[in-house]
Amino acid sequence: MFNNYTLTNPEAEYHLEYYNTIGLLFNDQLILNKNNKLLEFNIQDIKSIYFKKERELTQNYLIFIIACSLFAFSIYFNNKEILVQKIGIIIAFGILLYAFVKRTYTYNIVLFTQYSHLFSIPINDQDQDDACELIAKTKNKVRTNKNFMQAS
């Protein structure tokens, strides 16, 4: 399954095939960095691994509520001065437009094991290319290992 420690088996021969800021790929091990803790997986135990890009909508909802509140406030409190009402509506419309245009994402590496365990490792925006490359190499390794196991 996984262990929260570094490679400690002195009898095994580990051949480093690929490494980056996200993790290390050995001949039969994958080590991922999750919040400065190392998660160790055997290649045989990995069922699937993929990169997940998810849109974060919490800020958009908050901005939308603020814009709608400002719009309602401008309409409800109809002052004698139309200029104040028009400025409030224009500002509310600008904020509403920003709520629809603004896009923020969260990135994760999602890994399923043969034992039906799910692991999600958060990734920074700057490291998403490294994560995709590590995932591609790991998928290739898992696919090769499955083909080898089926052939034997």
What would you note in describing this structure?
This protein has 152 residues and is of the alpha+beta class. It contains 3 helices and 8 strands. Strands 1-5-4-3-2 form a 5-stranded antiparallel beta sheet, covered by helices on one side. A hairpin with a 2-residue loop joins strand 4 (29-34) and strand 5. The longest helix has 24 residues, at 128-151. 13% of the residues are buried.
Descriptors:
disordered N terminus, single chain, three-stranded antiparallel beta sheet, 8 strands, alpha+beta, five-stranded antiparallel beta sheet, about 40% helix, about 150 residues
Helical proportion? 40-55%
Average pLDDT across residues?
A: 85
Q: Can you write the helix and strand succession as a string?
A: EEEEEEHHEEH
List how many beta strands DSSP finds: 8
Low-confidence stretches: 1-7
Gyration radius over CA: 25 Å
Which strand order spans the largest sheet, edge to edge or round the barrel? 1-5-4-3-2
Taking the alpha carbons of the first and last residues, their distance comes to: 23 Å
Q: Give the CA-based shape.
A: rod-shaped
Number of distinct helices: 3
Q: What structural class is derived from the secondary structure elements? A: alpha+beta
Largest sheet: 5 strands, antiparallel
In percent, how much strand structure appears in the residues?
25-35%
